[in-house]
Amino acid sequence: MGSPVAGTTLFILCLISLTTTFAAAAFWPYDLRQGLEQAVRGRLLAGSGGGGAVVPISWSHAHYVANFTIGSPPQPASGIIDLSGELVWTQCAQCKLRRGGCFKQELPLFDPAKSNTYKTEPCGTDLCDSIPPDSRNCSSSGDGKNVCVYAADTRGGETGGVVGTDVFAVGSTANASLAFGCVVDSDIDAAAGLDGASGFVGLGRTPWSLVSQTGVAAFSYCLAGAGKGNSALFLGDAAKLTAGKSAPTTPFVNISGGDDEAFDNYYKVRLDGVKAGDAVIALPAGGSVVLLDTYSPVTFLVDGAYQALKKAVTVAVGGAPTAAPLKPFDVCFPKSSAGGAPELVLTFQGGAAMRVPPASYLLDDGNGGVCLAILSSARLRLPRELEGISILGSLQQENIHLLFDLEKKTLSFEPADCSKLN
Q1: 40 close to 181: Cβ distance less than 8 angstroms
Q2: pLDDT of the residue at 352
Q3: Domain 244-420 - what CATH class?
Q4: Does domain 32-238 fall into CATH 3.40.50.880?
């Protein structure tokens, strides 16, 4: 048995702010507007091709963040790694928030005027015209040209900006020409911002994501966890598992009987079984579609299975749960009694089994206790036809190397010490 994960009060506070906004932009995939990112079906710019690249990523507050540069000469930027993210975007120097001022970030704002390779996308091109009419417009630039501007909901909040292109250096990928959102307006809190990041790096199944634009056939990532060293994102030929073809593998799936278009950007697999130690957790008939996620730290399990899992963990721990669990969690235990917590085994379609130790699902509450960092998907308030959906959060993916084969449309994974892979 593993020991409960060590955490900090700061981490707990960040997690609380994330998981108490289920119906808001922090996590509400069904309500995402069909804006720019999902609708783009036009030109893709040439990137780094099928070569390999390693992108170091680090834990910052409650998210995984990558540093990169944009422009010539290069200007530093940073983005939250979002597995389902639909585009790459960063805040630009021309921002003019409706509430005044740009949102707070640690690095200087990207200034397109200082890049010799920055270009705005003109109106009337295939790329601009592929954006839904209610999400795009034209704006006159300083030189009198009409440039393509857009509005889109993102995981950070609603943003608007200029459709631009420039050269990026992301990890060991240099001079990749990417289309991106140069954000000049948003409803992101000006003081809180994105915990210091200047934008997002989307890896989703959409034409504007980093993996689509660089043209890689596969990518992988390995998350080390808070305070446990750097994590890494691997693109193209660098995305390999030690076990190779023998690694547990499961196919991507679609959502049956629901609005799959609302989740096009997500990588989805089917969960067929869950065990907590010797306890078998019942799932709905046909299993549960799981959305893989790096933005949400916690996992959301379909409600019936969650209730059974909560009971199984409580029985295995043996000690009485804390009378007043730390919100938003449903159940917490004294740390001294958590040694009996069972390993979880998630079995996906095809028999691929993922083992989740107690250290990856029991979160230190900073006050002598640990809390079950798995919640009911009922909190997401999804429509009835989508109530069978679960989400696998980043905490439960720690020290598991996950490989996404975009050609075969499969997910493979293996346990790993993520801090030693970059």
Answers
A1: no
A2: 98
A3: mainly beta
A4: no
